[in-house]
From TrEMBL:
Organism: Mytilus coruscus (Sea mussel)
Alphabetical list of Pfam families matching this protein: RVT_1 (PF00078)
The protein's name: Reverse transcriptase domain-containing protein
Coiled-coil segments on the chain, per record: none
Reverse transcriptase domain boundaries: 25-163
SUPFAM superfamilies noted in UniProt: DNA/RNA polymerases
Gene3D superfamilies: 3.30.70.270, HIV Type 1 Reverse Transcriptase, subunit A, domain 1
Transmembrane domains' residue ranges: none
Length: 164
């Protein structure tokens, strides 16, 4: 995470220090999270509307061809400003760090990310986003492929990294 520019060492005192949580993924890699339960009590949510799968499915009549693409490490696409970053400090057994990118677990982040994803695919028909996933569909292969190209072009313009 340090090499990827997601975290940075924090030497100065900060008002918040979160606990670090580790989870071993199915492939054996270790994923590091912060436990922001106390911080979440003080954060105001954006209250951006979050679509449900049912709402998306209801909007896809006559769809025959589908693709689902995923934003890689979705929340990490959101840079934190200095003040917000200092709220994400966490201790490790060796040093203290803070996040430079939005972490999983902060209650306002999914809504912020949903808003950004919606803006990215704005004015592209037959493409719906649910947090870090984008569903693209068409009634023909050609229609689907045109929409998929539009979404991929827009993602590239916005520096959104997608899973393979």
């Amino acid at each position: 995470m340090l090499k990827l520019g997601v975290i940075v060492r924090q030497k100065e005192p900060t008002a918040w220090v979160n606990s670090m949580v580790t989870v071993v993924k199915s492939n054996g890699d270790v994923r590091i999270f912060i436990d922001p339960k106390d911080l979440n009590k003080t954060i105001s949510r954006e209250h951006y509307p979050m679509k449900t799968v049912e709402e998306v499915v209801a909007n896809i009549p006559n769809a025959k061809v589908f693709s689902k693409i995923d934003a890689t490490s979705g929340f990490w696409h959101l840079r934190l400003d200095e003040d917000s970053s200092k709220l994400t400090c966490f201790n490790t057994p060796f040093r203290r760090y803070r996040l430079l990118r939005a972490p999983f677990g902060i209650k306002s982040i999914p809504e912020i990310f949903q808003r950004v994803m919606t803006e990215i695919k704005e004015n592209i028909e037959r493409a719906e986003d649910i947090v870090d996933d984008i569903l693209i569909w068409g009634s023909t292969n050609q229609e689907h492929d045109e929409r998929l190209k539009q979404v991929l072009d827009r993602a590239r313009q916005c520096n959104l990294i997608l899973s393979k």
